């Protein structure tokens, strides 16, 4: 099971030279997608316990369009292991506002984390 969120990255999100966006931007999107996944699986937002790993693989820039995917990797009685991937699907070309849809997405960030649902909200379905 998975969910995918797409979002335009406003130029105002860029805080570093080269129009770069900080890594926390992608982690926030993972939180939104993870919450959506939890609601889909258990009908509850869940509580995020933490990341087991985070890899920053490519820069995200203001003007890009990204998609954040949350995919259920495993399901315990109350814990849910979730794999996340942030992909750049459109890239800004220059300062004129021009952008292009990428033929192949660029994987910017990967992560794995664990969410926990309250005992009364956990479902037993796979």
pLDDT below 50 for ≥5 consecutive residues: which ranges? none
Q: Give the helix tally.
A: 1
Q: How far is the first residue's CA from the last residue's CA?
A: 10 Å
Mean residue pLDDT? 93
Overall geometry comes to elongated
Strand content: over 45%
SSE run: EEEHEEEE
Tally the beta strands.
Answer: 7
Instruction: Please tell me how large the radius of gyration is.
Output: 16 Å
Secondary-structure-based class equals alpha+beta
- As a percent range, the share of helical residues equals 10-25%
Main sheet record: 5 strands, antiparallel
Strand order, sheet with most strands? 1-5-6-7-4
Describe the structure in your own words.
With 126 residues, this protein is of the alpha+beta class. The chain has one helix at residues 23-42; strands spanning 2-8, 14-16, 20-21, 47-56, 65-75, 79-92, 99-116. Strand 6 (79-92) and strand 7 (99-116) form a beta hairpin. It comes from Streptomyces litmocidini.
């Amino acid at each position: 099971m998975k969910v995918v969120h797409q979002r335009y990255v406003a130029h105002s999100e860029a805080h570093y030279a080269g129009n770069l966006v900080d890594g926390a931007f992608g982690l926030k999107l993972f939180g939104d997608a993870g919450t959506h996944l939890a609601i889909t699986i258990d009908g509850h937002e869940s509580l995020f316990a933490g990341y087991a790993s985070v890899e920053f693989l490519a820069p995200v820039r203001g003007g890009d369009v990204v998609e954040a995917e949350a995919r259920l990797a495993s399901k315990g009685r109350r814990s849910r292991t979730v794999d996340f991937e942030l992909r750049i699907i459109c890239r800004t070309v220059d300062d004129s506002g021009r952008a292009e849809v990428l033929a192949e997405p660029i994987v910017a960030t990967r992560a794995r984390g664990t969410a926990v649902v309250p005992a009364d909200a956990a479902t037993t379905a796979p």
